[in-house]
Amino acid sequence: xxxxxxxxxxxxxxxxxxxxxxxxxxxxxxxxxxxxxxxxxxxxxxxxxxxxxxxxxxxxxxxxxxxxxxxxxxxxxxxxxxxxxxxxxxxxxxxxxxxxxxxxxxxxxxxxxxxxxxxxxxxxxxxxxxxxxxxxxxxxxxxxxxxxxxxxxxxxxxxxxxxxxxxxxxxxxxxxxxxxxxxxxxxxxxxxxxxxxxxxxxxxxxxxxxxxxxxxxxxxxxxxxxxxxxxxxxxxxxxxxxxxxxxxxxxxxxxxxxxxxxxxxxxxxxxxxxxxxxxxxxxxxxxxxxxxxxxx
Length: 296
Description:
The chain is of the alpha/beta class. It is built from 9 helices and 13 strands. It has helices at 13-25, 28-35, 39-53, 69-92, 105-122, 196-205, 219-227, 241-246, 273-288, and strands at residues 58-60, 65-67, 99-103, 128-132, 146-151, 159-164, 167-172, 189-191, 213-215, 232-236, 250-251, 257-258, 262-267. Helix 1 (13-25) packs across helix 2, helix 1 packs across helix 4 and helix 2 packs across helix 3 (39-53). The longest helix is centred in the first third of the chain and has 24 residues, at 69-92. The relative contact order is 0.14.
């Protein structure tokens, strides 16, 4: 008697991408955002996939979903397929499609752009297209090839590697003095959403935390506010050197503290050849400009 062979329909690429995102993100809603579908569309695609395969791929939890053992096994296959497809398509368009690099606006304008010309001179056949955004871009989807994230790391569902660290110290427009805690009287501390950095620096020097703060949604605005005399900011050593060299900002105190956040390079599992060259350049550049991470 001949053995029976079960043949399943090959799922669409959209279904595989939705499944992949749901496993990595642990949520149909977040997966829907990642693949630009509605929550209902993702849920229906997953349900149809489970019906077709005759197995449960996710445990539905009160908050989110979790891949079952069968779902994890399938994900290994799907992730490999999608990665190979992405690399193959990228190679087909080699020399035409730019490498899209997602970065924070402040990092792009104050660190990356001044150095990008050197890469273009060394690799004239590779175009790097910067996407400046505050939200964490999903590398490997939506056309994003690489990303540089600023934070504590690591992040679930992505491959991240430390690019570089930095130190923090107070800066302001020329003319301001910060020799003692008394000089903070009436001063406004400028920062982005991360207020803990100021607390860490003030604790290190033994000074109280002033009550007056002003918050901006981008570090570039923090530095511009400081340069315009609106208060005192914490300088991130990687980003403020041009302003210090030009005299727009001055360092107010010799003490520095390590920044609890750092810069991370985010890569897909199988980057294209062009993306690998950009990543290698970023690693080499970061290593050449490395600085010790220790309190000043």
